[in-house]
Structures are given as structure tokens and as C-alpha cells.
Amino acid sequence: MKTEKFDIAGMTCASCQANVTRCVQKQPGVREVNVSLLANQMTVTYDEAASGESDLIRAVENIGYGAAPAGQTTRQEGGFRQEWRQRTQRAEDERESMKKRLTASIVLLVPLMYLAMGGMWGWPLPGFLTGMANTLSFALTQLIIAVPIVFINRRFFESGFKALIKRAPNMDSLVAVGAGASLAYGIFALYRMSAGLGAGDMELVHRYAHSLYFESGAMVLTLVTVGKYLEARSKSRTSGALDKLVSLAPKTATVVRGGAETRIPSEQVVSGDIVVIRPGESIPVDGVVTQGGGFVDQSAITGESIPVEKKVGDEVISATLNRNGSFRFRASRVGEDTTLAQIIRLVDDAGNSKAPIARLADRVSGVFVPAVIGIALITLAAWLLAAQDFEFALNCAVSVLVISCPCALGLATPVAIMVGTGKAAEYGILVKSAQSLENLHTIDTVALDKTGTITSGRPAVTDIEPLAGDLTPDELLRSAAAVETGSEHPLAEAVVERAKAKSLSIPPAEDFTAEAGRGVRATIEGAPWLAGNEAYLTESGVDAAPASAALERFAREGKTPLLFAREGKAVGVIAVADTVRPDSARAIRALDEMGIRTVMLTGDNPVTAEAIRAQVGISRAVSGVLPADKEACVRSLQREGHRVAMVGDGINDAPALTRADIGVAIGAGTDIAIDSADVVLMKSSLMDVVTAIRLSRAVIKNIHQDLFWAFFYNVLGIPIAAGVLYPALGLLLSPMIGSAAMSLSSVCVVTNALRLRSFKQAQPGFVQLAEQTEEQIKEDITMKKTLEVEGMMCAHCQAHVQKALEAVDGVASASVDLETKTATVTLKKEVPDEALTEAVTAAGYTPVGIRQK
Q1: Which of 174, 386, 565, 698 minimizes the number of CB atoms within 10 Å of its CB?
Q2: What are residue 615's DSSP bridge partners?
Q3: How many Cβ atoms are within 10 Å of 849's Cβ, its own excluded?
Q4: 705 Cβ neighbours under 8 A, 6+ residues apart
Q5: How many domains does the structure of the chain reveal?
């Protein structure tokens, strides 16, 4: 199977889209067709052995449209930028062309309408156009003005009649038939007037002088052009997120070649190049820092509001901005392999893909235009049979044609999907397809991997409990770090990191030995020390009884206790655990309040699993689950009738992510091309799961609104245009009003979809706040909060924490005390605890607690 993209020319409405889709689907070997009216592109998956590229192009051309392979990009990011620029330029050129057509049409329409309507309103007309003797001149003048309007808007006739001949009518066919019928009847009236003048039948002349319809046909063409122009302007705004992304990448880069720095175009950077980045410069490609360091603003890619410190060995992402510091990095991903290029591809493909709900509009649009033409003919015949004159019957038939616009149906879904996927990308949420965005709103159960999803995935010290009276917690930690310095075990590293974070002086260790999986021993300041589990210390002759209470308590809490002995006596216990992410509990509470059940899948023992479950408020915990068993757990939930989203790290959870109705890869960072996930979260935040589901619900609600009004408009408008209310109420729509209403319907649909651009990211606690009264909210607001912050060692650290906190929306000021390791913030409005802890974490420090004043 091969998947190929084609540029399609000549599509103007949903019927065009449906016609192209239908004709290509009929070709042998074609498995899937997605036609985008917004992008004027078609993506086809087909068997090359059954059909070729030329066969697909010929099929499209046979029904009156143009087709050509989409511009092939190079393996460089600049290639896609060029492709996007060309697409944007084509759209802009088309909009400008339509603007010129509209301007010229209006300039000509104004005098035409003055001539046609002036007599009815008593407006003054030139003498050579007044009076019965000048009636023919009056009619010819209108024709002379109307012809240029028809010529300016000839595209409707070219496309519409061509589609009719190919038996694939579209919206242009309705406009062409409607406006053409009006103009043809006007010419017929002109000949009848001429015959009346020749025969001296002034009554015949007078009757047809008021039935010219030149202004009606010209007005229909002009009003449809107004709608098309407004629609084009609105649609151009839907790609705003992609425009921003494409413009993020710098055009040039400084690389080291031949021992000297050289400025080259970004697309010429190759893997392995050393790239130089100075303050204020954007990073052109992905890579790894090899020298220096700085603080990089990654908000455009990951959504993180606080700049992230980059040191030697850290990864940097293309299109992010270096705020301060200078560094060099080795390019690892260039061209279309960069994070930015892949994000653009994902967002673009998602915006152009078709959601299941769009199939309904496609099916309706496929038969809509032929049905409307049939209704118009029936209307014409019915009024003639009802003894109405031809003018009346024609008026009703033309009104039916021009009021029936399938554009609103065709635009309802793709515009909302494009805006929705673009909005998600702004928040660092990459939705891979329109189907995934739609399916998210049906989720009623979220299955969560524990390690790296609910928790940080890194062990950290949680408790320090001395057992000897001569040891303080810091003294115990200092000696424990000395014992563990030589160990490579992750738990030992957590102890050492905690001691360094508290700026403790770690003494050197002598005679260090380690027993894998059991413990270590060393001499610290002349005293022998042991560190390890209870069994190791007991085998070494240490009485662990004094620590039994602490060991049992930590085990119940799901923590791993490390027992320390000095000179053969137990002197302390340090508990280590994979700490829960600051926003996990809030995100799970938000999901619960949205009516979504949460299930945790973990390989931990039941005690640890229950401790984490209770801490974050998860509905159910399944323990002892191996990565290979998670898929079975998801399948079991689905058998119970649940729609399941699986949230994991996208690697060892791949089978479960694939099995789930929606697979969500969290904390993917630059690895955004995880095939098994439907949604990729650039940040390691469960709150983004909440945001993604809320956004999906908003998009689907918006689509339902658009489809309802589009259907309602046509169901209501067509009978009125046909004149069903005329016998009872005398109500009759003119073609001019019908065409204006038709144009307005498309503009309304696009404008409604654009409301999604105001969608706001889920904030911690947003559900609870929405349910509180204004008085309760005021009572709950605390104007000062104090955070305990670990990791600050100097005035530089102090300044970083203060700057990070003051950058949080709602923080009036921040005061950081290096000695007490605390930061006090003064608030000017409600600020969630998570926002403060995230700011500190993003700055590179560890918040361990928060108090309110």
C-alpha cells in the first residue's frame, strides 16, 4: 500500500469534496481517501499494483477537477517551510483575486441596482432612459452593465456547467443555473419588449420592462462572491497555529566548520554539526549540548511557561529560544526529522484528516445538489400548474437554487477540527488525527501507568528518621550520603542528591564495598557504617528492632526504607519513594468531576499501589501488572463496556496504548513520533489529559451546533424559497435575499468554529472553582503562601526561584530566604498550588511543601 498526497483544483464546496472522494474511491485498489476542502488536497492510500498515480489523476479530471501530485519536499525542514509558504501564498493570491472580483462586481452592481430599482422609489434617471419610448434603451443599458459582472464571475459558470456536464453537480452548478436562468429570462424579456415595440403593443413592453431580472442575476453572483470572500478570510485564520509554528524556525544558523564559525541557512545544517547559540537566538535543529549552558524558552513547543536550564548532555529542541547564556550543541535531528517539522506534519495531517462525524455531511452533500436542482424544477412546474405566470414560477425556482448552499455542511467539521488541532498544538498536545480528536470526547475511563505518568519516575527522599539520640536529621543524611556515594543504585543516588540539595558537606568514604541488591558498607570519619535493607543488616549482626516501627509505617505508605547502622547499631531510617507529580492529584480529581473513571496499572506490590491510589484519589488500582499484561487490563475494561484512554510513556506501554480506544503518550519530550499513541503530550503533566478531553468535547459541541444550523437552515429555507408560505401569508423570497442568506450561512459556520480559538487550557482546580459561589471563592483565596524549596545553594539560585515565582500569573511579589530554604509569595488573585510548584520545578529546584497564611 502507498499513501500519496495530491493538490486538487476547482473544488468550491462540500459537494465538490464528496464528488472527488466518491470518484477516487471507485478506483481499483483504493483503500482510503481523504479530501480536504480547506487545503484543496487529497490523501489517498492505494495498492500500486491495482492503480497508479496517473489513474487517480485521470479519475479526478474526468469529473471536471484538476489534480497533480503535491509538491514533493526535500528531507529538509526548509522544504516543508517552502511547501507551506507556497500553500499560504496560493490561498492569499486566491483571496486577493476574489477581493478584486468582488470590488469590480460591486462597482458595477451599484449603478445597475439604481437603474433597476430607481423607478420604483422615484429616484431621478437620465432622460434617455425614461419614458415608454426609451424602454428598450433602459433594458439594453442594464444588460450592458450586467454582462461585465457575469464575465468577472465567469468562474461560477465554468465550474458549475462543467460539473453538470460531468454529472457531478456542485454549489457552483446551483449558482450558475440560478443566475443563468435569471439572465436568460432577462434576455428573453428584452426580445419580447422589442417585439412589442415593433407591433405597437405597449402593454407587452410595459409588462416585460418590469421582468428583466438582470439585476437579480448580477446580485446573486455578487452576493455569492461576498460570501466566498468572507469565507476565505475566515478560513485563512484557522491555520494560525501552523503559521506560528512554521515561522518559529530561524532562517540561519551558526556552525563550526574547519575550526571557524560560519553562518549558513538552517536547512543546510547536517547531523553532527556543532551549532553555536548565543543569548536571544533561536535553536535551528535538535541536538545535545556539548559546551556551555543557558536557559531556553520552550513555550512554543512544549507549552512550558518558565525557561528550562540546559547543561552539557541536555537535549535542545528546534525552534526554542535561548534567553540567556551561550552554549554549543551537536546537531542530532535535522530537516524533517526535527521536533518542529514533525509537529507541523502531525498538526497539518490531523487538520486535513476526516473525522467520523464528517461522513454524515459527505453523504448528504453527495446527493444534495442533484436533489436541490430536482426541487427547483418541481417548484417551477408546480407553480406553472397552479396557474401562476412564468415570472413568478421562475422567481421561486431560482430562489430555491441560490438559497441551498451545501458549503455550510461541508465546512462545519473540517474548520472546527483544524482550529481544534491547532489549539491543542499551542498547549503542547499533539493530536494525530481528526478521528482521535473526535473519539476523545467519548472516553469514560482513563487507565494510567504509574511510573513516569502519575509519579515522576525518579526516586526521591521523603523521610529522614534518626534512631540515635546524638544524630540530627541533617547529620544522619550527611553520613548516609557518604556511605552511599560509591553506590550506583537509584535509591542511593536519591540520598546523595538530597544531601547535595541541602548543601551538606559530605565526608569521604573509605573501604567501600557493595553487595548487589542488598546493601553497602564503608568507613566514615573512622566509624564503620552499614546501609541496606533489614535482612542485610540483620545478617551483619545489627539489631533492627529499634527501626521496626518506622519500617512498617514506611512500607504501609508505599515507600522503600533504607536502614543505616553505625558501629553495629541501627542509627536511622531514610525512606525513598517515586514521588507523585505535583499536578497528578488535581488532574485525577478534575477527571473524576468530569465523570471519568480512573484506573492505575502498576507493577508495584499491593501495599505500594494502594498507598499511591489513596494519595492521588484514583478510583481503582491494579497492582502486580507487567508491561505485557497492561494490554489485557485495557481489553478487560473494554469488555465491560467502557471507552478507554490509556495514558503511558509510549514505549513499554505500546501494546496497551494500541489496544485502547485512545492511546496517550505522556512526557514524550522530543520523541513525538510514537506510532502507538493517538495523542502525544509534550509535557509530563496529567492536566494536559484533562485539557485534551475538554478540547475534544468543545470541538464536538461546536460541530454539532454547526451541523444542526446547517441542516435547519436548509430544511427551513428551501420550502420558504419554493413559496409554500405564499398562499397563506403572501411570503415570498427573492433570489437576492436567498443568495444573501446562503452566503451568510457559510460565514456563520466558519465564525462559530473560530470561537474555539478562545478555548483555555485546563487549570488545576478549575472544576471545583466553577462549582463554588463567588462568596466561597473569596473566602478561599489566601493572599500569601510559603513554599519549602530544596536545591538552592547560592544567591544565584535564590534569584532564579524568585524570578520563576514572580512570572506566575497572579503573583504580585515573591521573597526567597536562602537560609530557611523558603519562598513566600504575595498573591493578587487565586493561584493554584500546582502553578507555584511547577514554576519552581521548571526553574530546576524541588518544592517539598507549601503553607498558606
Answers
A1: 386
A2: none
A3: 11
A4: 752
A5: 5
Domain boundary among 558, 579, 600: 579
Flag the least confident range among 123-137, 589-603, 755-769: 755-769
Its domain, for residue 274, covers: 251-337
Same domain, 476 and 558: yes
Number of other residues whose CB lies within 10 A of the CB of residue 711: 16
462 and 575 in a common domain: yes
Residues 6+ apart with CB under 8 A from 117: 123, 215
Residue-wise pLDDT for 294-306, tens only, equals 888 876 666 555 5
Sign of CA dihedral 839, 845, 851, 853: negative
Helix (H) or strand (E) holding 47: none
Best CA proximity match to 254, nearest among 272, 287, 278 = 278
Helices (H) and strands (E) in the chain, counts: 30, 30
pLDDT at 84: 60
Shared domain check, 531 and 604? no
For residue 266, the domain's CATH number is 2.70.150.10
pLDDT tens for 378-410 read: 999 999 998 888 878 887 887 787 777 655 666
Strand, coil or helix: 264: strand
The one-letter amino acid at 797? C
Q: What is the dihedral of CA 756, 594, 683, 752, to 10 degrees?
A: 0
Catalytic positions are 449
Which one has a higher pLDDT value, 202 or 263?
Answer: 263
| Distance between CA atoms of residues 466 and 524, nearest Å | 17
Grade residue 86 by pLDDT with cuts at 50, 70 and 90.
low
DSSP string, 168-211: ---HHHHHHHHHHHHHHHHHHHHHHHHHHHHHT-HHHHHHHHT-
Q: Establish if 113 belongs to a structural domain.
A: no
Average pLDDT over residues 180-192: 81
- 673 with 589, same domain: the answer is yes
783/619 Cα distance (integer angstroms): 33
Supply the pLDDT for residue 577: 81
| 572 and 465 in a common domain | yes
> pTM of the prediction?
0.60
| Ranges assigned E (strand) in 383-508 | 429-431, 445-449, 455-466
In a domain, 657, yes or no: yes
Query: Of the residues 280, 307, 337, which one is the last residue of a structural domain?
Result: 337
**Nearest partner of 587 among 439, 764, 381, judged by Cα:** 764
Residues 6+ apart with CB under 8 A from 623: 602, 603, 604, 605, 606, 608, 609, 610
205 belongs to a structural domain = no
Residue 476: name the closest of 463, 487, 489, 459 by CA.
Answer: 463
Query: Are residues 304 and 262 located together in one domain of the fold?
Result: yes
Examine the domain organization and report whether 555 and 592 are in the same domain: no
On whether both 621 and 670 belong to a single domain, the answer is yes
Contact 17, 365 (CB under 8 A): yes
Q: What is the pLDDT of residues 439-451, one digit of tens each?
A: 899 999 999 888 7
* Separation CA 613–CA 626 (nearest Å): 18
Residue 823 C-alpha cell reads as: 519562598
Percent of the chain whose pLDDT exceeds 70: 82
Contact 547, 467 (CB under 8 A): yes
Examine residue 745 and state whether it is found in any structural domain, yes or no: no
What letter represents residue 403's amino acid? Answer: I
Note whether 45 and 51 are within 8 A (CB).
no
Across residues 694-714, what is the average pLDDT? 83
Distance CA 414, CA 791 (A): 49
DSSP track, 286-349 = EEEEEEE-EEEE-HHHH--SS-EEE-TT-EE-TT-EEEE--EEEEEEE-GGGSHHHHHHHHHHH
pLDDT tops 50 at residue 575: yes
Q: Are strands 327-333 and 274-277 parallel, antiparallel or unpaired?
A: antiparallel
Distance of CA 303 to the CA centre of its chain: 12
629: CB partners within 8 A, 6+ apart: none
Which three three-digit cell numbers place residue 443? 472516553
CA 441 vs CA 402, 678, 679, 696: distances in Å:
36, 14, 13, 5
